[in-house]
């Protein structure tokens, strides 16, 4: 699909009611067609990887065109300057998370980006760092447990950041790491207890919510079954 064809498709699926609903959960209502993500994924499948078109879509500046840009950008052509340009332009959690899930987590330096960005002061750049930690815990199936160790002090540091989009990303990362396998589950529970001892209401919320899920019967049963399959070679 060409740029003009994509814009026509977005206009066709535009939904003012969706825009209002998105605004209620913190998604910017300006420069927004109100098109749902599954429709954007269908457009991306028809368009396929096209880096020049991705750059054009990002510069157009609409919610949908930027999400589409993250879906069709060519990972091999993503440069440090492009990363800085895009991450610095994040202005709500959806664009941030979609970029992490669609593009950033599959980059060769995703692990380093997670560490670097989680130290940054900018609200959505910092969120991107912690979202990447959460996503890598899910998507990088071959990563050893030791790869997550550098994240733990950063999660402790981030746990006192009271900004809503940051604290929720820290919580998400702790929970996703802790649901990866029994060893990391125990490690994440210990981490949550350490966070809980911090003199911070934000940290205590993060820890309590993470512990609730990580210690739940549902998670513990699933992890035990996974461990048994791994032991018997059926995983």
Care to describe what's here?
The chain is mainly alpha-helical and 235 residues long. The chain contains 14 helices and no strands. Helix 7 runs parallel beside helix 9 and helix 9 (123-139) packs parallel to helix 11. The longest helix has 17 residues, at 123-139. It starts with a helix and ends with a helix. The model has no long low-confidence stretch (mean pLDDT 94).
Topology:
Elements (H helix, E strand, L loop, with lengths): L2 H10 L3 H8 L13 H11 L3 H10 L2 H10 L7 H9 L4 H10 L7 H9 L4 H17 L11 H8 L5 H15 L3 H15 L4 H14 L2 H16 L3
In short:
The protein has 235 residues and is mainly α. Helices cover 69% and strands 0% of the residues. The model has no long low-confidence stretch (mean pLDDT 94).
Distance between the termini: 40 Å
CATH fold-level assignment of the largest domain: Serine Threonine Protein Phosphatase 5, Tetratricopeptide repeat
| Major pleated sheet | none
Helix content: 55-70%
- SSE class: mainly alpha
Structural descriptors:
single chain; 235 residues; mainly alpha; Serine Threonine Protein Phosphatase 5, Tetratricopeptide repeat; 2 domains
């Amino acid at each position: 699909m060409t740029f003009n064809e994509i814009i026509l498709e977005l206009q066709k699926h535009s939904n003012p009611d969706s825009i209002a609903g998105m605004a209620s959960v913190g998604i910017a209502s300006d420069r927004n067609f109100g098109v749902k993500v599954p429709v954007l994924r269908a457009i991306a499948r028809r368009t396929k990887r096209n880096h020049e078109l991705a750059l054009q879509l990002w510069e157009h500046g609409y919610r949908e065109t930027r999400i589409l840009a993250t879906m069709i950008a060519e990972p091999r052509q993503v440069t440090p300057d492009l990363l800085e340009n895009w991450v610095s332009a994040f202005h709500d959690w959806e664009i941030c998370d979609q970029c992490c899930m669609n593009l950033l987590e599959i980059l060769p330096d995703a692990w380093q980006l997670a560490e670097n960005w989680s130290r940054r002061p900018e609200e959505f750049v910092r969120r991107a760092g912690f979202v990447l930690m959460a996503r890598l815990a899910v998507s990088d199936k071959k990563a050893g447990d030791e790869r997550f160790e550098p994240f733990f002090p950063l999660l402790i540091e981030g746990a006192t950041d009271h900004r809503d989009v940051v604290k929720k990303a820290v919580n998400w990362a702790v929970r996703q790491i802790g649901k990866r396998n029994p060893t990391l589950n125990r490690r994440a529970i210990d981490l949550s207890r350490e966070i809980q001892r911090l003199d911070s209401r934000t940290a205590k919320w993060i820890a309590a919510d993470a512990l609730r899920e990580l210690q739940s019967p549902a998670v513990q049963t699933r992890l035990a079954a996974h461990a048994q399959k791994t032991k018997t070679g059926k995983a």
